[in-house]
Amino acid sequence: MLKKTRASAIFNGRCPKCREGNIFKNPIFTFNNFTKMNPRCPKCNLDYEVEPGFFYGALYISYIFSVGIFIAVTIILFVFFDDPESKFYIGTVIILSIILYPFNYRFSRVIYLHLFGRVKYDGL
Ligand SMILES: [Zn+2]
């Protein structure tokens, strides 16, 4: 049996308490349904919304991701594409943000729950 690290639990979108139950109902590549969360862990019954409105805080993580996309695009276009016109910067940031939105949405919630949910791992 593989040891369940917090990093692998975050990467796979698993419960912070048992690191086995899925936080989301569907795989990330289900076009319309990637946002649906399980209200409770299917394995250990942890209530994922540990306090009312808890996931509003995930907006901060999402914001960090968005700024990261912006910085990465700026550096890559500047260094490897010889500093193109500003419309290319804006267009690339917008398109990448839309493409990466499912990852941003889900990982910001998973990371926020793992880091700020005050839930202890009770596995072995
Ligand atoms: Zn669980």
Number of strands: 0
What is the domain tally? 1
Proportion of residues in extended strands: under 5%
- What are the bound molecules? zinc ion
Describe the oligomeric state of these chains in a short phrase: single chain
Silhouette: elongated
Alpha carbon gyration radius: 17 Å
Distance between the termini: 11 Å
Listing every helix as H and every strand as E from the N terminus to the C terminus, the arrangement reads: HHHH
On the 0-100 scale, what is the average pLDDT?
Answer: 92
What does this structure look like?
The chain has 124 residues and is an all-alpha fold. It has one domain (6-116). Helix content is 48%, strand content 0%. It contains 4 helices and no strands. The termini are close together. Zinc ion is lined by residues 15, 17-18, 21, 41, 43-44, 46.
